[in-house]
Every structure is written in structure tokens, then in C-alpha cells.
Amino acid sequence: MTRIDLCCGLGGSGKTTTAATLGLAHAAAGRRAVVLTIDPARRLANALHLPLHGTDPTPVPLEGLGFPGTLSALMLDHTATFDAVVRRYSPDPETAERLLANRYYRAISTRLTGAHEYMAMEKLTELVEAGTWDVVVLDTPPTQHLLDFLDAPDRVQAVFDRSVFGALAEPGGGILGLATRRALALLERVAGATTMGDIREFMRLISGLSAHFRERGTQVRALLDRARYLLVLNAHAPERTDLDGFLDALSDRGRTLAGLIVTRVAAPAPAALGPAELAARIAGVPQAEAWVRALLAAREAAVAAAQLDGAAADRLGAQAGLPTWRIPDAPEAVRTLQGLATLVPNLLPLAAQSQ
Ligand SMILES: Nc1ncnc2c1ncn2[C@@H]1O[C@H](COP(=O)(O)OP(=O)(O)O)[C@@H](O)[C@H]1O
Ligand SMILES: [Mg+2]
């Protein structure tokens, strides 16, 4: 059975980089791994040889790294994925083409609330169904809220429920997100009276796919039940992640966190001078005692504000009762495949775990 490693975390925490490193670690552990990634930095996309468009994973060239497994990578292309779903699951090709050409579909298909999360899950299900991968590493979309992703199947199913689509035509947009309402307003300005016709046709055509969306919702929930959840936390700003809140919300949904990956961990700080040594260094300076006090206070503040070092990262994990893995702060390494490979030993124990 294909394993699923799900990297959660705030936007900017280092999720995408961590997901790529974990994918490499799985290849190093001898697996056929695939990383489904979202918005990688350009350098990382180049390092992984990611195509800019496309809906199929591309092999990452691992020659010279000596890894027994393989890694492929795929960048989520929302529009292409949604269009592919329409082509594949519409009752007939004609319905599919009319839906794809529908102006309303074109305007909203990627703006629906939850659409990005839905597309990630559509792709995840496809990758698992393909049966060609030992593990899928999923980099989650940059959501405002850590848990948007987990709730997406329910939300998406509600959105694609035919009766709910009726709400589209209602003034105010009902359940629709602000972006969709703006798109609708724009459409109305551009297309005038034909807009209602577009919407009605859209609703009629998309209802042919409602069985697919329902079935996918059920499949995705089953996949999410057996996925391994990993929280990526940035050592530069650990306080941005509400760890306790995340753990509570996860357990409310009947799921547990498998561990914490603290990334951008600082190298250990050089040993600091104690108060006595500090006083000896500046003995003879006027008001030396006041200087020592001020310097110590300043250092304390600097330490508190600084990024977590390895020991602090481990303490954080231990307090939460979670296994913890660390990735060092390595701005140069994260730009190339060879560089990323040097970070693999940090995640190898996690990749090698049986699930
Ligand atoms: N271990 C690391 N060391 C140094 N820089 C890193 C590390 N991991 C990520 N970064 C940098 O941090 C930024 C955000 O990383 P990214 O993986 O895109 O985060 P996210 O996917 O959570 O938004 C990028 O510029 C990336 O190069
Ligand atoms: Mg990202």
C-alpha cells in the first residue's frame, strides 16, 4: 500500500523544501517516492527539474547520489488538474468540452473556496491509485489556517453538491468566497445579460460530475485517515505556530501528529561569557557594573528572540511529547539537488520508519 507523508505547516515555514528533502530521504531509503509540491521557489523547482506545467510526475535525476530508490516530483497545476477531472469524469466528451468552454467555469474553477486543497487531494488520490509509488510526500497548500486542508473534502463536497450550486445564482454569493463573488461581479460587467445563461449551463453541466466529487470525498477521507502527519516548524519563528492548538484540532478530527520537523535550526551559539568574566574584561571602565547588567540583559533578549538551536528544538518536541527531527539552517544547500542531498541524513530515520 502506498504510504502518505503529509507535511503541514504555515506558509513560509519551509514545508516545500522539507517535503523535497523528505522525498529524497525516501529515495535514499530505497523507495519509489513521489513528491507532490505546491509553489516551490524557482531555484528548488529547477533543482528538482520540475516542469512548469503538466499533470504527471517527472523523474528527478539522482545520478551520482548513490540512492537505491527513485524520486519523481510534480508541481500542482490547479487549472490543468481541474480540466483533466472535467475531461475524465464528464458523462461524455461533448459535455466536457462545453463545460471547459463555459465562461463561468473558466472564471471560477480555480477560485472556489477550497479548490486548491481539493486539487491537491484529487492528485493525491490519483497518485495512490496509480499503484506505482511506495510513498507520496504531500506538500500542503499555503493556507492561512493549518487545518484548512483537513476540512477540504467536506467543504469541497458541499461546494459541488448540486443543491448548493443554486446558491451561486443568489445575490451575495452564499457560501462562495470573496474572490468568487468578485469574479462574478466582473463577469456581470463584462458579459452582461448572458451571464445568467452561462451560470445555468454551468450548473447543468457540472452536475454530471457530482457523483465523481462525492466518491472522491469518501476516498480522500480514507487516505487522510491513514496518512502520516508531520508538522514543519520554522526555527526562526517558532512562536508563529500554535502547536497546542494544532494538536487539539487534529485530535478533534481523530488524527494524531507523527512528529515535528524543526527546520532552519541554528548552529550552536559559541559559549558566552559569564557575569564575572564580563566584569573582568571591562574592569576600570567607568560604571562597569551598570555596563555588565545592561550587556547581560541585552544578550538575554537577543537569545530569546533568536532562532531555535538543536537543543531548543528537541526541548520543544519533548514538551509536546512528539518525536522531533531537525534540518539545519542551510540557505545555500536548499538551492541545489546536491545541496538538498546533504540534508537527507537529518530525515533518514524518519523516512526509514515503518508506518
Ligand atoms: N533548511 C533551510 N535553510 C535555509 N533556508 C531554508 C531552509 N528551508 C527553507 N528555506 C528557505 O525558506 C523559504 C521558505 O521555504 P519554503 O520551503 O518555500 O516554505 P513554504 O513551502 O512553507 O512556504 C525559501 O526561501 C527557502 O529557500
Ligand atoms: Mg510551499
Could you explain how this protein is built, in words?
The chain has 355 residues and is an alpha/beta fold. The protein has 2 domains: 3-267 and 311-352, Rossmann fold (3-Layer(aba) Sandwich), CATH 3.40.50.300; 275-305, no CATH class. 52% of the residues lie in helices and 13% in strands. An 8-stranded mixed beta sheet has the order 3-4-2-5-1-6-7-8, with helices on both faces. Strand 6 (228-234), helix 12 and strand 7 (257-265) form a beta-alpha-beta unit. Helix 6 packs across helix 7 and helix 7 (148-160) packs antiparallel against helix 11. It is elongated and about 90 Å long. The termini are close together. Mean pLDDT is 82; it is low at 162-175. Residues 9, 11-17, 41, 142, 263-264, 327, 329-331, 334 line the site of adenosine-5'-diphosphate. Magnesium ion binds at residues 15-16, 38-39, 139, 142.
Q: In a few lines, what is going on in this structure?
A:
This protein is α/β, with parallel strands linked by helices and 355 residues long. 52% of the residues lie in helices and 13% in strands.
Strand fraction: 5-15%
- Distance between the amino and carboxyl termini: 11 Å
How many DSSP helices?
A: 16
Shape: elongated
Mean pLDDT: 82
Class by alpha and beta content:
alpha/beta
Q: What's the CATH H-level superfamily name of the largest domain?
A: P-loop containing nucleotide triphosphate hydrolases
Ligand names: adenosine-5'-diphosphate, magnesium ion
Q: Largest sheet, if any? A: 8 strands, mixed
CATH class of the largest domain: Alpha Beta
Number of discrete domains: 2
Taking strands numbered 1, 2, ... along the chain, how are they ordered across the largest sheet? 3-4-2-5-1-6-7-8
Q: Whole-number radius of gyration?
A: 25 Å
Q: Count the beta strands.
A: 8
Order of SSEs: EHEHEEHHHHEHHHHHEHEHHHEH
Helix residue percentage: 40-55%
Q: Outline the low-pLDDT stretches.
A: 162-175
Q: Per CATH, which architecture of the largest domain?
A: 3-Layer(aba) Sandwich
CATH-defined fold name of the largest domain: Rossmann fold
